[in-house]
Target: N-acetyl-gamma-glutamyl-phosphate reductase
Amino acid sequence: MTVRVAVAGASGYAGGEVLRLLLGHPEVEIGALTGGSNAGQVLGALQPHLVPLAGRVLQETTAEVLAGHDVVFLALPHGQSAAVAEQLGDDVLVVDMGADFRLKNPADWERFYGSPHAGTWPYGLPELPGGRAALAGTKRIAVPGCYPTAVSLALAPACAAALVEPEAVIVAASGTSGAGKSPKPHLLGSEVMGSMSPYGVGGVHRHTPEMIQNLSAAAGEPVSVSFTPTLAPMPRGILATCTAKAGPGVTAAEVRAAYEKAYADEPFVHLLPEGQWPATAAVFGSNAVHLQVALDEAAGRVIVISAIDNLTKGTAGGAVQSMNIALGLPEATGLSTIGVAP
Amino acid sequence: MTVRVAVAGASGYAGGEVLRLLLGHPEVEIGALTGGSNAGQVLGALQPHLVPLAGRVLQETTAEVLAGHDVVFLALPHGQSAAVAEQLGDDVLVVDMGADFRLKNPADWERFYGSPHAGTWPYGLPELPGGRAALAGTKRIAVPGCYPTAVSLALAPACAAALVEPEAVIVAASGTSGAGKSPKPHLLGSEVMGSMSPYGVGGVHRHTPEMIQNLSAAAGEPVSVSFTPTLAPMPRGILATCTAKAGPGVTAAEVRAAYEKAYADEPFVHLLPEGQWPATAAVFGSNAVHLQVALDEAAGRVIVISAIDNLTKGTAGGAVQSMNIALGLPEATGLSTIGVAP
Amino acid sequence: MTVRVAVAGASGYAGGEVLRLLLGHPEVEIGALTGGSNAGQVLGALQPHLVPLAGRVLQETTAEVLAGHDVVFLALPHGQSAAVAEQLGDDVLVVDMGADFRLKNPADWERFYGSPHAGTWPYGLPELPGGRAALAGTKRIAVPGCYPTAVSLALAPACAAALVEPEAVIVAASGTSGAGKSPKPHLLGSEVMGSMSPYGVGGVHRHTPEMIQNLSAAAGEPVSVSFTPTLAPMPRGILATCTAKAGPGVTAAEVRAAYEKAYADEPFVHLLPEGQWPATAAVFGSNAVHLQVALDEAAGRVIVISAIDNLTKGTAGGAVQSMNIALGLPEATGLSTIGVAP
Amino acid sequence: MTVRVAVAGASGYAGGEVLRLLLGHPEVEIGALTGGSNAGQVLGALQPHLVPLAGRVLQETTAEVLAGHDVVFLALPHGQSAAVAEQLGDDVLVVDMGADFRLKNPADWERFYGSPHAGTWPYGLPELPGGRAALAGTKRIAVPGCYPTAVSLALAPACAAALVEPEAVIVAASGTSGAGKSPKPHLLGSEVMGSMSPYGVGGVHRHTPEMIQNLSAAAGEPVSVSFTPTLAPMPRGILATCTAKAGPGVTAAEVRAAYEKAYADEPFVHLLPEGQWPATAAVFGSNAVHLQVALDEAAGRVIVISAIDNLTKGTAGGAVQSMNIALGLPEATGLSTIGVAP
Model:
């Protein structure tokens, strides 16, 4: 099987990462690459790490350029995917790494993104209950946000097993690549090195409704989420500290058992041995999720901590994993659980 | 007035930072410097940034060496301060930058530190209610822990004004200097650069009872604390994200007003203008505390975020500030609110 | 004595650093602050570390705004200083932190900067032979470039003592603040963290003719310079590795003696004890220069390594030092040799 | 073909990296793993990024444990390889990632390593003239040092084509993993983050004679080397700035042509397009070498800059590449030119 793939938005971080993974995917042939303002440039000048594609020229993002591929990955700014997608045939697998088709509730979309809702596509997080079934054979995939990936995998088992009350408090640290490649003063190396800072505080971050959607589905009841993202001085990685009040009488052993059961057969989710805690360095460049759980008996809270690479499992790796399922390929094809460390 | 000062433990990070500040203190003359295994070495080989003291030789930490000073700063491993302090006269101001005399409840000490409780000294956080009165004229000061400094200043006003319920959930990121200068594999640059990781999860970090002590005093009732510390890839700084459930009907304006009132006259606590969030880089090397508050109405929680330099306001700067109060000097002598950025 | 000072370009890194230092200068009162596109904003939003000036509003950079001060610091883009300076009276001390007035040879200026030469002002590197005499009482100061500061202080003694042949090979690493605060893709944190890269290779960096000018003056003959700058993953600091072929029969002791003699009375230049090498962390935020020398007998080369803070001694600290000399103040007023480390 | 491989020293950085690569090598089956003081521990606690091997227990490094494999990688401290190697049969391919068998001249070994010379094995740098022939079918491989890899590939073509005089001046920056995983105070994250510092200055670094050996062989005459290594605040990567005086009349076009010719068919050496400079981030985790050349006509020097990942091409990737050649496998099997960036 040879799958011919195009990538729209190949000059950004998500586009570069999906190309890095696709170059190692044995069933994929890389076709058209498009860019926005970078159209006309060679990829080697923009993504020097992708040596085998160094001479490729970026084209304009048009339906003509993207036509004739089996799969099209969209790595476009929020709000631009719908217009492109509707020009691609129903027989093309379209994988949107933007936010446009993640939310089910149009009111949530409009409140957090300020534009009309484009629709809802099958959600690319196979490890959630029912996740794989929704993706099998689909021709449209909404890749989850990076924070919702880390947070949903951390808390869904506790919610599903009713081990916690439906009020989550989450603080997550992300590497700067999560903020994209557009140059802004606060993202300069001079500003971020040696500094931690929060942003989107007070329930205003756009990934909040997506977390609520996932955790409420797992819990079978509405879950409230207090989410605070922080920017960390590292290029990649998310460390999500997720806590919720423990249900009455819940024990540490029950919590651990729920996670062992939930992820026993998952190829990418790795519950660490007791006493060992996740570190983002260990998942750098990999599709792995490292998890650890604790029960703070004095405070009466369950704490679950997850580490992912925001660009791999959090974006492009999750996208390739979902593509594999949609195409009927072995789910882990072209993906790895092995981080590049130190 | 010339205050003659000795520093026990001058080769570590806390000792080096207090020397850096004391070198700029107009009323201080630096006397004996002692080290543990480094006794006999010149300070320049261990603290090359302290050029004016480069030729000073570290002595053994003995009562004889420390005698004859007006003030003795102890920057010793936990559990070693009491034995030294009791050999120093009652007329000497002893400032302990270790944990030994911070906790009031011996049971807390024994549970978290595993040794007999040495006692309780006046607590060096002047910005807490009653803080200055406890320090005026004292001859013994227990310098707060770095996390308790960041967290207590962030949450005490909300607790004191009964704007939140007495259950705090806190996640904080610290630079690596908080872990000290003893070489351990997980603190190697190769391990920490590019990585975020938690430690002391589940209520077991030693600073937890100190936070509970401070916040309960502010609230006038027991406050439970869920505290998760994380190690961030930066040498200095603490960013503490502190949240608690908002009391019924509490508004954002009320929250902000409480903080404006609490810190209106504080020289070192800086409530940022609305819309601006703290970053640890802005307080690097300074004694400032940057604060911002938010009310997440959907989640029903108050979020307060503080940034400090763990070595300055979090340890040595707080120590000098308390020394100034104890000696009757202007509180800000030798201290600055100006960070070294970028 | 109270010196009233204005800073043009207060929103950038050089402007911010000179304000940080001036806030601690006992003879200075800070007057007008101007910005380019940031005029109208409060400084606190742009330089959050400068708490005492947080409420100051940036004004337009005009002669009217800058009038009425004793000293005006210009922290403007290259080529803009001359037009501002000529509108300021001859009785005002103008300190240009840009490149406009550093070079003596108009042809060098035109070749490297591509515009007509504006002139030559007294050069603000007091530690060079004759440096202080040129600055005493002057009303115009050209602050050296950051790399030329590090390199000239490293090699001038060897050149002056004819210990080396007049061909220098220099490789220097700079923190990213040297590239300024204008957001550009290659300066994003995501790009620079974890990466070393060169730029301006092959003799094209604009600081090259300035180094040649300084070293040739010291040597009394033309010195050729091969200079390669690299960008290092740190916010501040320059480490300059400077080498030249040793003259016939030169010994290591002679080399060391030349440096001991050259800098014996210098307050800011610190020749480290034998066996200890400079590190940029040790001079972070200080005006100190740390130096060490070696003779590689097998290769027949002298190696001198210097570490400075590019924003302090390399720009704003050097500027304040020269201002002090020009005004007849003690040279070290408001400046420190103590770095903020770790 | 299934190659059964053992790794001695699996808990360190070189051992971890070779395992990371071998896990992706389609012809390799990973056998025994040994450790020094870590014997008895599970690999997951020491190398958490190697998820597929998390449960493997480290054994003692003995001949019995290492017996029965086709290939044994030695990632041991300098001086320990010979004793192990001589107990392994002549039919086993032994790949030494330490220094023991790199140098041909016993006097060089004794002077730089202070112990008797163990011998000389075929040298694992296939891109050098004659490099592949020396490795085909061999049962013993001496993997080059990381700096000699970066430097030799940068300068050998210029030396071989007699475009430069035989005196090289080299300054290189390395990530901290090059210093290994043994905890030492100067390698703490607190010390290295935000800091550049040199070490081994003046011709005393142990990699110097290896560079001289390689460059002299390429030049056909003795080449002197002035080499200064620096420690950079990043976990991985080497950026080597290599310069030499240009021969009379040499042009930039000639220099470029020599490199294009030398590396036209090399799978891992990538001469960048003119105007683009290497950055270590682009080769992170890959076996690629990025190169660029310049001629500084004013200074009369050729500058060649190379970027490699010190752990991959600089150690473990080079080791696997040489193993492939020795075993008759396609040279690039299990290796990639694609970096993990940003």
About this structure: The longest strand of chain A covers residues 164-174. Chain A has a mean pLDDT of 97. Chain A touches chain C at residues 13, 175-177, 179, 181, 183-185, 187-194, 233-235 (CB under 8 Å).
